[in-house]
Amino acid sequence: MLNIVLFGPPGAGKGTQSAKLIEKYKLVHLSTGDVFRANIKGNTELGKLAKSYMDAGNLVPDEVTIRLLESEVDKNPDAKGFIFDGFPRTRAQAEALDTFLAGRDTTIHQMIALNVPEEELVKRLLERGKESDRPDDKDENIIRNRIKVYNEQTAILADYYSSQNKYVSVEGVGKVKAIFDRLSYVIDSLNAKS
Ligand code: AMP
């Protein structure tokens, strides 16, 4: 198996790059944000609960998010591996993921962070907000709160994976194809090692 955490702040390009990576490497894309949004659309209990947090740009509580992630992984027993996008976002989530994957005789092989300066993130998200129906992309205050939450609660995960020798970062600015080539280079070198 090959399990990658694609990491970076909101607007770093995780969704865009995940879509390309799963095609090339035949992995399953698992975005907790996408699953929450599908639940909001379907008006499920989970969707109703998640919406209030998401609309404010805050994190959905760990217990809910961890349970959701685990059930999504278990829906794909034949997967060659996963690209985790937007999960883990807290230390508790990272620890839960480690334990969960260990129970399935696998692990996270690499966290790859996309490096993008903050003002570029805000610009990209406001652009995306014009075309998408995501309320959290339409308001600059909410966007800035999401980046703040990332800096305060999520960015520390770089150290978490670094201490396991599983962290690498790539430049997330430039053409989509150029960034994709950087990510592919990292994944190809992992595949070459295994
Ligand atoms: P994303 O699509 O990854 O930008 O996530 C959109 C929103 O969904 C976030 O701002 C959070 O409110 C919620 N969310 C997604 N993933 C997580 C997670 N791993 N932990 C907590 N909240 C999450």
Description:
By secondary structure, this protein is of the alpha/beta class. The protein has a single domain, classed as P-loop containing nucleotide triphosphate hydrolases (Rossmann fold, 3-Layer(aba) Sandwich). It is 58% helix and 13% strand. It has 9 helices and 5 strands. A 5-stranded parallel sheet has the order 2-3-1-4-5, with helices on both faces. Helix 2 crosses helix 3 and helix 4 runs parallel beside helix 5 (91-102). The longest helix has 18 residues, at 176-193. It is globular. The mean pLDDT is 97. Bound molecules: adenosine monophosphate.
| Through-space gap between termini | 10 Å
Largest beta-sheet characterization: 5 strands, parallel
Number of helices: 9
CATH class: Alpha Beta
Instruction: List the secondary-structure elements in sequence, H or E.
Output: EHEHHHEHEHHHEH
As for the CATH topology, it is Rossmann fold
What compounds sit in this structure? adenosine monophosphate
- Shape label: globular
> Radius of gyration in whole Å, from Cα?
16 Å
Please tell me the total number of domains: 1
How does the helix and strand content classify structurally?
A: alpha/beta
Q: Using DSSP, what is the number of strands?
A: 5
Strand content: 5-15%
Strand order, largest beta sheet: 2-3-1-4-5
The low-pLDDT segments are: none
Could you estimate the helical fraction of the residues in percent?
55-70%
Average pLDDT taken over every residue = 97
Q: Under the CATH scheme, which architecture would be assigned? A: 3-Layer(aba) Sandwich
